[in-house]
Amino acid sequence: MDSIANDRALLARLFAAWQKWPRAESHFEVLPLMDEVHDRYLLLTVGWDGPRRIHNVLVHVDLIDGKFWIQRDNTEAGFATELLAAGVPKERIVLAFYPESVRHYGEFAVH
Asked: What is the CA 11 to chain-centroid distance, rounded?
């Protein structure tokens, strides 16, 4: 299996684990949206909290030039932490929600 296929499979596996997150009494679900043509991957929370509609992007990751570009991360521990735990090196993770001008201060890839 080539690298891009491995990266896609990894995201599918991590997203599948998130789908199990809401408990039975939760009034929302976690939906993965995986576009392998454009290599864009999103986790959405969808449902109801009483009269309030829930429809949020939990995680948005793009695969660009062999790297995981985290465009949005609304998780408590950080999706980069999950990628690191799965064996992805820091040099392949870009925290794209930070401006490029400040990314070099962090421990992950700049671009």
From this structure: 8
Dihedral sign for Cα 9, 78, 97, 103, please.
Answer: negative
**Helix (DSSP H) and strand (DSSP E) numbers for the chain:** 3, 5
User: Dihedral of CA 13/10/111/41: which sign?
Assistant: negative
CA–CA separation, 85 vs 83, rounded Å? 5
Measured distance CA(6)–CA(9) in Å, rounded: 5
Radius of gyration over every alpha carbon of the chain, rounded to an integer in angstroms: 15
Note if the pTM is more than 0.85.
Answer: yes
Q: Which H or E run contains 72?
A: strand 67-73
- pLDDT per position as a tens digit, 36-47: 999 999 999 999
